[in-house]
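notes to self, project folder thing:

trying the whole complex as one job this time. last attempt i did each chain seperately and stitching them together was a nightmare. two parts in total, labels are on each line so i dont mix them up again. if this works i'll redo the older ones the same way
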Amino acid sequence: MTPIDPVEIFRVEAQELLEQIEQGLLDLSHTPGDKELVAAVFRALHTLKGSGAMFGFDALAGFTHHCETAFDRVRKGEVQATPDLVAAVLNAMDHMRSLAEGRPCDAHVGEALLAELERVVAAAGGSQTSSVRANDPAGAVPVGVGGADTDAAPRLKTWHVVFTLAEDVLVNGTRPLPMLDELRALGDCHIRALTDAVPPIEALTPTNCHLGWDVLLTTDRPLSAIEDVFMFVVDDMALEITEVKGDDAVDVQAPAETVSPLVASATQAAAQVAPDLDIAAAAANGDAKTARADASVRVPAQRLDELMDRVGELVIAQSRLKQIAAASQDMNLRSVAEEIEHLASELRDSMMSVRMVPVAQLFSRFRRLIHDLCRDTGKEIELITEGETTELDKTVIERLADPLIHLIRNSADHGLETPEERLAAGKPAAGRIILAARQAGAEVVITVKDDGRGVNRDRVRAKAEENGLLAPGAVISDPELLQMIFQPGFSTAAKITSLSGRGVGMDVVKRTIEGLRGSLELTSPAGEGSEVALRIPLTLAIIDGLLVRVGTGRYVIPLSAVEECLELTAEQDVRSTGRSVLTLRDQLVPFLRLRSMFNTKAPPDVYQKIVVVSTGGERVGLVVDQILGDHQTVIKPLSVFHAEVGAFSGATILGDGGVALILDVGHLTSEAAQHSPAPLRAAS
Amino acid sequence: MPSILTVDDSASIRQTIKIALSSEGYSVAEAVDGADGVQKADASAYDLIVTDLNMPIMDGLTMIRELRKKPAHAGTPILFLTTESDADMKAQAKAAGATGWLTKPFDPDQLVKIVNKVLAR
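result (full assembly):
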């Protein structure tokens, strides 16, 4: 596997960090004194700054540094996390986001934000003099290892190095022997161990370092190269480096060199004893804990898509195998085919679950939106989220963000009243928007509900008439009237505010949801607020389908929509020629003859079948020639030329290589609903 | 092949360290915070540990102290990552028992150089 570019990881990470910071700040605005929140925000800012500087996001690192400094002071209790301070950092977030995305940014904007931050920090109790921006961005200059190679004179010099390490140096992971090796690598080297400080054996602590060294080194390397050897220990040791002039000063006994490493390794060995004993003890204790269960792996979404594609192809190949096996007498082949079918379906399910992410990820973004909406509308709005653990396909989640933003804006702008109006109507001053998710079968239902004034029918009607969507005075049912809102170009806001009514309307929301093979429904009992329910299929890629035949064509009905399969009796068939309704357990269910819809010429089967499907509470029967069985359906989208064909939502490849169209059940039920009242009246 | 454990809550930093050190022939394992670091270090022996200081759940200082308490890790070199502005953190980390440090932002070659140095390769 090729390593992923850390810069790419950083980009993703920066988004996550910004989300964490934002979340933390929003929470802080409710509980200003929460130390843990402050620490969490500080930590995220710190990481953002540090990693930003690592990967060349210098502007981001520099800017974030100031916010970090402000929060450091909050953390240390020097400054209060006042609402103004939180708001100032929140405002700065958007700038950070732009910087993290590498978008061109106006430096003045950053300056203005920092000036504001400085002002609120001062107001929040920061001392006047030590401003936020007092100390400048973190270490743009890495502390080098032997950075100053420039003072080098390529001339041989002799150095006398005497050093004694701190007693506990072995405990800190420093090893004297590699240090001596390093010195030796610099040039001609004579080393003598200083054993004066070694205590008598009974008083010796084997884990301590009692030795010192006396080294005579002749090298062409600069002094800094020698100092580098001691870079991590220099503060806690005795070190003396002097240059030896002339040849007369050699007072180190050369033979000692052979002795000193031995002594050094003895110390080393002593330090090793205790660890070895403890390893055994730790093993006995079963201390070797297994890796953390929640460890996760970051994978680019594209790889998941590729994998999903392969699984799709596998499922297609598997259905071919199934067909071949079914026609064969070979029991071995049949059992293998069955096993592979089982595995393929398991693989498909695990593949789907890999792509699933909790909607919490999506919901958490809206808290900021509500925060801004409160400010912009002057309304008090409380966002309540439910069912955050409900999971949905990652692609679906991403595509849901915009429609939900629109719906929430609509609720805040049109639905909820001002605090005065609410109090006058006997409601609490703060309006509520409830964002809820739950799973229902193979669908996830997401509802956006508010406790505002509800949809104003008169205004909807007036607007629809004005736009020519509705003939003046036409009689339509209440649900039909509400549906008008989803017509293109419809907007009821008397004046266009910055929040909603910016040209894209509910029709865009509807189209997006339908693009996800979902549906939406608006209910609004007058005066009791409104509720929009989005029903979204769990996944976009593979579904369980029921394969049927109509004439010579084969079609797939999503199994999740299928309620039951019946035979169309000759009696019902005759009675209901033309417009069709059948009685199913005392309920009238309209049915559609797919043969006539698809203009099928081939002679019908003697016994016609009805597949009863349902969506959103509506039931409808689809009359087909034959029910072929279940089919793992890999959905392939129709081409742009066929996108307008309403009755089909896609196509799939069958085991024998043929193509079957996938029926759009939602479309068919509404088709049937339009036709059903007529036969009812005709029959009565 | 010496093995190294990198402890950092930032995946991008972990990846940078991993790429730099594995290209030098080290085998590199990752831990996402101090607690994870202690657990991984207990589970398998590492020749060196590179850790961040500022992490959720358990910070780097606490992790270094925890590790130094255990004789099994008493001699393991531990390098920590710090920033210029964290001068007092550096002193604290050294007091906690760290072997050396690296100042962020760091050059991967510099990391390799220091690790080679500490492991005396």
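what i see at first glance: Helices of chain B lie at 11-22, 34-43, 60-69, 87-96, 108-118.
need to look closer tmrw
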